[in-house]
Automatic annotation (TrEMBL):
Species whose genome carries this gene: Candidatus Adlerbacteria bacterium RIFCSPHIGHO2_02_FULL_54_18
TM regions (residue ranges): 5-25
UniProt name for this protein: Uncharacterized protein
UniProt entry keywords in alphabetical sequence: Membrane, Transmembrane, Transmembrane helix
Cited InterPro entries: 6-blade_b-propeller_TolB-like (IPR011042)
Domain of life: Bacteria
Keyword Transmembrane helix: yes
Amino acid sequence: MNKNIIYITSGIFVLIVGVLLWFFVLPKGADQPEQTGTGVQTGGTQSTTFAVGADTSASNQPFSTGASSATGVTIQSVFKIDDGPVAGAVLIQTTRPTSTIARYVMQQNAHVFDLVLDTPGAVARSASNTTVPGVAEAQWAVGGQAALLHYLDGDIIKTLALSLPPVSTSTVRAPARMRFLPDGILDSAFSPDGKSVAYLLKSSSGADGYTAAADGSNPKKLFSLPLSQLILSWPAPSTLLAYSKSAAGTPGVLFSINAKSGAVTPLLYANGLTATANRDFSKILYQQSGATVPISYSRDIKTGLNSPLSFDPYPEKCAWSSVATFALYCASPLQFVGSGFLDAWHSGTQTATDAVFGYNLQTEHSVILAVPGGPDGGVPSDILSLGVSPDDKYIVFIKKDDRSLWGVRL
């Protein structure tokens, strides 16, 4: 269900005992190295270009800011898309004409809107008026033609698969199609191509994982895990990830699951573990949080080596680049936060103002791309989640307190 609304950590100590045997197959390389740090590259956020390799062509530079209008006048890079509350958003690209569109679903009624980001003064157009009151979270598939709407009906977690037609300039709106998935879904994720979905259901011994078409049809059981409180993602076509929900200082474990065979492999374990993997499953960004400050690492899948990052982002507030497998964008506080911050953040008792960072796993350098509420525009923001456009020219984020929707021009 909602990673940021329903965050259950109780019982992890008991549940983790059931998977201790998994740990014996872990390589010794899973031990964490000491944090060394490499320094944060900041500079002016209005004119920063962050090359990602020897090839310095425009298509190989995902980290660049300084948006300019047709007249050459620099404009603010942070801008509001909708007052909200927004349940979820995705960025789509069209070719006729070439444009970037923010597609988003409203929390109060599940109505879907499209807004062209490249056209000054553009007005949001309705994409669906299907009404579902009180949507807690919306998960979008790449391309924006499928979404999972999660909401509560009494004490029951309901999930509705919404299928939409492609983005069109036509004034005639095609109807959306709907299908209910099983009740009580613990977590879910779309495949990288947006054609399939995976979800978790509680079992007597933990959780069972299922895959289905993006609209929820043709479900089949794929795997089982001896834990029920899990976070699920589908980073690469052949690989799913699942890790235990854990608090600071509480043992956590990360599993990979073969998307075809359902084979489960434990990858690493750490206290207060959160993680995300890139789209070719060559790198994992993970954070451990114990009694001291949280520390973030990049893990090479082939070698098992861990490299400390030059800053300590929360993986759940990061999104991988669409054009470079070794680059990612993260929302991270500029000020110091302690080891228990993420737990308090989930419970709503603490907040922090974020900046948007870019990080290059090849060069191990980071750059501040935008600071909402500063010269870049916008307002100070505690960012809930990030999304990246297919060409890495825009970022979209939801502000946690009021769930307003914002964009960042890169």
